[in-house]
Amino acid sequence: FWGEWHTYPHEDWFPDEPIQNRVLRAYTNAFKKTKLLVRRPAADSPTLPIGYHDDSFAFSTLPTIDWHFVSQLRRAGATNRWQTHPIGGELRPELQTNIWKQPIPAEPKAEDFADCVRQTHATWLIGHHLFSEKLPAADHGRALEAARSLGYEIHIAEVLIPPIKPGEPVNVQLRLENRGVAPFYYDWEVQLRINSETKTPWKLSRLPPGQPTEWNHTVTINLPPGEHPVSIRVVNPLQNGKLFRFANQEQQPDGWLDLGVLTVR
Questions:
Q1: DSSP 3-state assignment of 179?
Q2: Which region among 1-15, 74-88, 207-221 has the lowest average model confidence (pLDDT)?
Q3: Cβ–Cβ contacts within 10 Å for residue 90, how many?
Q4: Euclidean distance between the first and final Cα of the chain, in Å?
Q5: Distance between CA atoms of 162 and 173, rounded to whole angstroms?
Q6: Cis? peptide before 166, omega within 30° of 0
Q7: How large is the average pLDDT for residues 196-208?
Q8: CA angle in degrees (0–180, nearest 5) for 16-22-26
């Protein structure tokens, strides 16, 4: 049954709550780093470190009917689960190509995509047909724009790097904004580079949407007089994994973001 937490049309086959909880706890006991998602807030999942997966996104997401995804989250008291665990899902297959048309076809009836993103704080969605079929250019552009609306968007809004004298420590201060709808859920290593890389204590997961955050870090380094470039990057721990990119024009293709120049006088 595709792991979707139903046995339709054989509904009497579905396990009772004790068995559901055995499955849920087996997964949470086995996966201490990788984030988990389950189809709906079943059994004890609202008390466990598990996110949720809306398998019929933009078709039965909004709380207009009691069995819709957000309705179930509300009944379970799990509407804030996105703050600590990701919400994902699959854009309803019948909608994956036609929801981007203008006007949107009447059948199957689609919910407002942007409203679904706002209410779920979705980070990612499966959209297989977007890759297996070629969309008209305008539809493809709207699909890309919708993809950009998901998850995090970390923007460094302000940088302060005061000048120093030779031998003095360097203090780097940043103000960041998450302009997306969800946090970045993993604390990948954040590095500063001033001649060489140094690890910082900064936590990506502590950048909630809509709340500007201050980062401050002091680096002890012996620099000669002159101008020294300062940059930042987030290190993907997965070998050959995609680079993390800040939402700044100064972002470089190699993953480093230029913050400015440190003056040593």
A1: coil
A2: 1-15
A3: 19
A4: 67
A5: 9
A6: no
A7: 96
A8: 150
